[in-house]
Amino acid sequence: KRGLFILENILGTPAPPAPLDVPLLEDAEKEFKDREPTLREVLELHRSKPLCGACHSRMDPLGLALESFNALGLWREKERGQPIDPAGKLITGETFTGIRELKRILATEHRLDFYRCLTEKLMTYALGRGLEYYDTEAIDRIVGQLDQSDGRFSVLLKGVIESAPFQKRRHHSSLTAREPGQTLSPTARRESAAASN
Asked: How far apart are CA 121 and CA 90, in angstroms?
């Protein structure tokens, strides 16, 4: 779950939905009859199945790097009596031994992925709609500005506000919020007619 969260909300590369007939993690856990396996061991077995490997090879290294934190966010050294191994290798080839190295890799090697993901999420919120192909140019421009400014949030915010998609969005409230009997201006009438078509 944590690896999937990083893919979706930091790198902007969500994994596709799991196939309907994908085996559960609990099924892989049952194959260890002599002891309780660690999550890493269960995921390795799960990942060995062709249906599961494609997505889990992207998610698991990210999530396992966070295994030293329990569900409450408290640090732990062991899981089920065995030492936790937070090391991993990203699908893009970078290796790390723990969360600090992973953070450095994400902040340097994958900063443009993060800038794009954050820009797309803020733009979606600002527009009140999903992004379309014609928003790509504005997104690219903002990501470039973020990269030049070392990721300053003020640059992101200004970029979204000054972008063509934000500047040219329609205000539906101005088309519908009027007193009974009040007439619309010629411009508002044209916008209302275009919105109803």
From this structure: 24
pLDDT digits 0-9 by tens, 106-127:
999 999 999 999 999 999 999 9
CB-based contact 146:169 (threshold 8 Å): no
CA dist 12 → 5, 36, 93, 106, 132 (Å): 10, 34, 18, 12, 16
Structure tokens at 35: 């002891």
State the pLDDT at residue 54.
80
Amino acid in position 186: P
Span 148-190, pLDDT tens digits: 999 999 999 999 999 999 999 876 555 455 555 555 555 655 5
Distances in Å between the Cα of 115 and the Cα atoms of 92, 95, 106, 137, 151 are: 18, 22, 11, 14, 7
Measured between alpha carbons, how far is 98 from 119 in angstroms, rounded to an integer?
A: 28
Please, how many CA atoms are within 13 Å of residue 123, restricted to the half-sphere of its CB?
Answer: 28
Residue given tokens 């992207």 in the structure block: 58
Tokens of 17: 């939905």
pTM equals: 0.76
| DSSP H helices in the chain | 2-6, 25-29, 39-47, 50-64, 99-108, 111-127, 136-148, 153-162, 164-167, 172-176, 186-196
Of 116, 197, 132, 195, the residue nearest 164 (C-alpha): 132
